[in-house]
Amino acid sequence: MKSLKVIHKIGLVVFTIGFFTFLSLFFLGQYQLDKDDLREAVGEQSFPIVNKFAEDIYKQKYSSQFAFVSDFKSVLNQANEEIKSEYEIKPSIAGEIAKANNGKQFRQSAIEKVLGEPSNVITKWQSKQLTDYTGWMEGREYESKDELKAQLEKVISDVNNSIISQKGFSKDNINNKAFTIAKQSEVGPVVQDPWLWLFLAIGIPILGAIMYLLPKLKTEHAGIKNDGIFHSALKNRGWIGILLGTFLISFYVFLYWFPEYMTSWIVMVDPLSEILSGNPASQWFMYGFLYTIAILVMGIRMIIKYRHSPYQMIRTVSVMFFQLSFAFVIPEILVRLNQPYMDLKNMWPLDYSFFFDYRLNEMIEAGTIGLFMLGWGIALFAIGVPLFTYLYGKRWYCSWVCGCGGLAETLGDPYRQLSDKSLVF
Asked: Which of 87-101, 287-301, 348-362 has the highest mean pLDDT?
């Protein structure tokens, strides 16, 4: 019994070391911009302009992803300014077009009179935009040249405001390219040996967690125990719990809005993604991997804690199985087989894009497997949900199949006491 308690404590130490190793990866990234990577990221058309402002970045090796991403975004913003200055239509053109227009009715032929025959890519684009944006004005009568000029000035303003979205880099486009280029430019220790860091940052914490949990089979009785749980700094709003909550919130903020700063974690799981789907890892693969690991490891804890209850053990194994297979492994293998990505346990309306045109077209074009996916998805919410809910009640999905419910039932189990128990709403 004493040796088991020693293993229990060693497991906690090993897990803590591994967890802090995982956190350290956030600060271990090193970045060096490569010209070919930049060309691939921004495209051949935009590369000459972007390359002009990126010369200083090529010479530097960054030890901070924040500095690298900031400089890269600055390059794209400078490129935007130059692109806008090149393609921008001068407001004075509005007056010239108004003067060239004969009569009260606006005719688009006046645009050609003023601009002339397009002589290069820029003037061709300007002519086309003015023609497209004034299509609704063709034949429209105006009381005076001044009224027509004012309307044309609004049109030119709209065209100029569209330059960045059409020819440059929008805010969303900059963020997406920042993630792409940051991942490609990573040259730190994680890139050099991702398997080693995967073991150190993920394998070690898993090993420590198992060493911490398994002795409980002999040292603790099965079932719910309230032994000091309300005095725990981790489980009852203590300082450790606050730090953990802050980390989780920060993790999700970076995951959804700033993945370009998480590249070391994403590079770490690249080899695993290559094995499963044949593609480099994205932030969503990394998240799905960590999500699955959390359910599996904390699922073991649930089985140990509720080993006296066959119902709880089977239910826990169920959510572990569906998360590992249906939600994580099978969708990635489908991609490797050039089939549509699909979580087979997810359903409309949870899978809100299921009936979007691009999803339907993707499934139909995939042939037999795609048609099976379409039929499966429809049958799941139209037949499966009503039938299983009638037979087994409303918890059959959230407590036995759903990934969100699976995380709540496993990782969230130690924090059940923090939920609101009041009857007043």
From this structure: 287-301
Is 381 a member of any domain? no
Specify the amino acid at residue 410: T
Count of the separate structural domains present in the chain: 1
Predicted pLDDT at 253: 96
CA 7, 10, 11: angle at the middle one, nearest 5?
85
Q: Position 51: which residue type?
A: N
Phi, psi of 319 (to 5 degrees): -70, -30
User: Residue 127 belongs to what domain range?
Assistant: 30-187
Q: What is the Cα–Cα distance from 277 to 331, expressed in whole angstroms?
A: 8
Chain-centre distance of CA 107, in angstroms?
Answer: 47
CA atoms of 1 and 15, how far apart (whole Å):
21
pTM tops 0.85: yes
Count the helix, strand and coil residues of the chain and give each as a percent rounded to the nearest 5: 70, 0, 25
CA distances 415 to 237, 285, 316, Å, are 10, 27, 17
Rounded Cα distance between 275 and 65, Å, is 27
Residues 335, 279: contact at Cβ < 8 Å? yes
Q: Is the pLDDT of residue 424 over 80?
A: no
- Evaluate whether 71 touches 61 at the Cβ level (below 8 Å): no
Which tokens sit at 395?
């918890």
Determine the distance from the C-alpha atom of residue 259 to the mean position of all C-alpha atoms in its chain, rounded to a whole number: 7
Q: Flag whether 45 is in a domain.
A: yes
DSSP-derived letter for residue 105 is B
Count H helices, E strands: the chain? 25, 0
- On whether residue 368 sits in a domain, the answer given is no
- Indicate whether 249 belongs to any domain: no
Ranges of H-type helices in 229-356? 239-257, 263-268, 270-276, 283-305, 310-322, 330-336
What pLDDT shows up at residue 425? 59
**pLDDT at res. 230:** 78
CA distance linking residue 188 with residue 28, whole number of Å: 7
Structure tokens that stand for 333 in this block: 């293998």
Question: How would you label 159-171 residue by residue, b for 16+ Cβ within 10 Å and e otherwise?
Answer: bbeebbeebbbee
